[in-house]
Amino acid sequence: MAKKTRIQRVTGMHDVLPDDQKYFERVCSIAKSLVEFYGFSKIDTPILEEAELYSKGTGSNTDIVQKQMYTLKTKGGDVLALRPEFTPGIARAFLDHGMYTWPQPVKLYSSGPLFRYESPQAGRYRQFNQFNLEIIGDSSAVLDAQLIQIFYNILSELKLKNLIVEINSIGDHQCRPYYKKLLTNYFRSRAASLCADCRRRVRENPLRVLDCKEEKCQRIVSQAPQTIDHLCDECHTHFKSVLEFLDEIEVPYRLNPHLVRGLDYYTKTVFEIFCEDNQKKEGEEFQPKIALAAGGRYDGLLKLLGGEGAGAVGGAIGVERIISLMKSQEVKWQENPNPQVFIAQLGNLAKRKGLRLMEEFRRAKILVAESFGKDSLKVQFKMADKLGAGYTLLLGQKEVLEGTVIIRDMKSGKQDTVKLNKVMEEVKKRLKK
Ligand code: ATP
Ligand code: MG
């Protein structure tokens, strides 16, 4: 008889089990409270968009659109795509909702899953999560620096160590065409040593070769002409100010003259944040570097999507890559604060009083733990100890009949009996000390 095969999960996709949920929650809650401090508001856009949004916005000759996009045809004949990145969807929403009329710049954050048909490997999945920021409606260099600072602060608040920002400027429509010509000439004469993808990239967009993850291409890239030597005055001044602002706020950065982003819409500043732990060590095999976060300025995107031009800068953190670094750096944090009070009980009547008492404590915003299903006092005390409760309230059969409770100070082991109707007052008094 044929063996029944179990349905497997899709390659490159992951279940997030309960043990890992706390990492996701930690990353998102730290990031959320930080960006709200900096004046960002949340936006959710649909996971499905017209595929054309990405071919127009991200760029039809990018890897994301050419190779990595999940597209589907609906019954009605529309060609849709699972979002491979946030920015075009948010730019579309900006235009749809007339956000030009809102106070500028509009600062938006989003988080959620993205889909890219990549070759699955460490740190590279087909469904992954980003925490994404956009500042739309302002061209000032100070915002580039502030955005990088915010990403750096999120990673630092997550207690990640050895972080470094790599930064570059890729110019704009004035200076980039000339630089592209220089690059094309440089790569053309070395085409034989490039990978097949890069030989195509030289024809379509030579900047893309700089971003190739193949070792042989990276070797050629290391000697390639650098954008910063060919910036126009405006881009040069902009880049200089971004770096001055970064110096002022003491974010550690390093110029990477060959850093580009894989997406078409970037102008001027581009950056990626890495952890130095992951860097190649002497004698080790070549491994492409794994970026934790990335972004840049994209002053051209809104116009590309049919809107008026507007300065914009944005970026995203790769949540799974952050989590894997939190694990390898053994980052610890206090997950849930210890309960202030544990209610231990013996017998049905005590359970009834315990349930009531728990509600009173909840309303008084005092953290309580219990184990009402257990009958053994020994087990309950053990649990109170394990949870690190400050006090245990013991409702035994005798106490319930007498209308009293025993308060045990878990540190000193000292016990006192108080009236049940006075217990809240007594606990509050002790917690204040
Ligand atoms: P890479 O160069 O590593 O392919 P990217 O340039 O495609 O990254 P972005 O589109 O800028 O990445 O996304 C921002 C961040 O999202 C990256 O720095 C990374 O942390 C994360 N990221 C990108 N692709 C993946 C993926 N396939 N799986 C997990 N995380 C990813
Ligand atoms: Mg990529």
Structure in words:
This protein is of the alpha+beta class. The protein folds into two domains: 18-175 and 231-328, Bira Bifunctional Protein, Domain 2 (BirA Bifunctional Protein, domain 2, 2-Layer Sandwich); 341-431, Rossmann fold (3-Layer(aba) Sandwich). The chain contains 15 helices and 16 strands. The strands form three sheets. It has an eight-stranded mixed sheet, with helices on both faces. Strands 13-12-14-15-16 form a five-stranded mixed sheet, sandwiched between helices. The protein has a three-stranded antiparallel sheet with strand order 2-4-3. α12 (348-363) links the parallel β12 and β13. The N and C termini lie far apart (73 Å). 38% of the residues are buried. The model has no long low-confidence stretch (mean pLDDT 93). Adenosine-5'-triphosphate binds at residues 85, 116, 118, 123-125, 128, 130, 261-262, 291-294, 316, 318, 320-321.
Number of domains: 2
Small molecules (ligands, ions, cofactors) in the structure: adenosine-5'-triphosphate, magnesium ion
Count of individual helical segments: 15
The description of the largest β-sheet is:
8 strands, mixed
Decide which structural class fits the backbone: alpha+beta
Strand order of the largest sheet: 1-5-6-11-10-9-7-8
Give the oligomer, counting copies of the same chain as homo and different chains as hetero. Answer: single chain
The helix fraction, in percent, is 25-40%
